Amino acid sequence: MGIATVRGLKIRYEVLGDKGPWMSLITGGRRGCDEFLPLGRRFAADGFRVLLHDRRNTGASDISLSAEETEEAVWADDLQELVSQLGTAPLFVGGSSSGARTSLLFALRHPESVRGLLLMRVTGGEFAAQRLPENYYDQFVRAAREGGMAAVCATDAWRERIAGNPAGRETLMKMDPDHFIDIMTRLRALFVAGAHLPVMGVTEAELASIEAPTIVIPGNDNTHSSKSGLAAHRMIPGSELHRLPITDQDVPLIPFEDWAPYEDEIVRVFGDFMRRVGG
């Protein structure tokens, strides 16, 4: 594990493997990078160097809240600074859910740093557009209104963040609740502005402008429907599609850990893709 100072914040990262092409894997939601340790170790064993990191406001990295841009855009710029410091660019970038959205924005904002995109469980559709604002923002606004920042710290999501980085509690408790509510409200508005697109957070024109080689593995729940993955594949020029032996399920969310039986196939498919397009 390493700690890098990225745009003024301490960002925790980990490198798996000691040879081969570089790749970065980004987890979904606001979950820390440990979720991808099993998958990352498989890629390392297959001959790749894997960069994992806790995005700001996740895992053991610092907490810093602002609402000038979407969280995914901020995470994409943080990753650019991190890979610049580590000297790992250009590299393959990919992830699941919000990690896939961050990867897409990384390719749009920093195309010179991308060798290819590895997209899993692409988010889109009306179910996700209705569900995710509550998960990411609304519940925390209610907590702050009802009990101030102590109530925010007591929510399951922020309690998990504080467990990963205890200093985060002090950061949150120093915030004025009204300022926190304002940030969450503005972040929500930015998020919702792109939530109803076929591929959440990225316009069709932006997808059409992506030149990096891309491969898509669709998801299979109501938040990450196969329809959204197919839309991404259709809209990104020249992208490849791989469908796992799974079917769509009428459930809100399938945890990524439930995809563990398919990790060997994911490594094989993504690994073959990276060797083909990366030389």
Brief summary of the model shown:
This protein has 279 residues and is α/β, with parallel strands linked by helices.
Structure explained in plain terms:
The protein is of the alpha/beta class and 279 residues long. It folds into two domains: 2-124 and 199-278, Alpha/Beta hydrolase fold, catalytic domain (Rossmann fold), CATH 3.40.50; 129-191, no CATH class. 47% of the residues lie in helices and 15% in strands. It contains ten helices and eight strands. It has an eight-stranded mixed sheet, sandwiched between helices. Strand 1 and strand 2 (9-16) form a beta hairpin. The longest helix has 29 residues, at 126-154.
Helices and strands in order:
Blueprint: E1 2-6, E2 9-16, E3 22-26, H1 37-45, E4 49-53, H2 71-86, E5 91-96, H3 98-109, E6 114-120, H4 126-154, H5 156-164, H6 167-173, H7 177-193, H8 204-209, E7 214-217, H9 226-235, E8 240-241, H10 263-278
Parallel strand pairs: 3-4, 3-5, 5-6, 6-7, 7-8
Antiparallel strand pairs: 1-2, 2-4
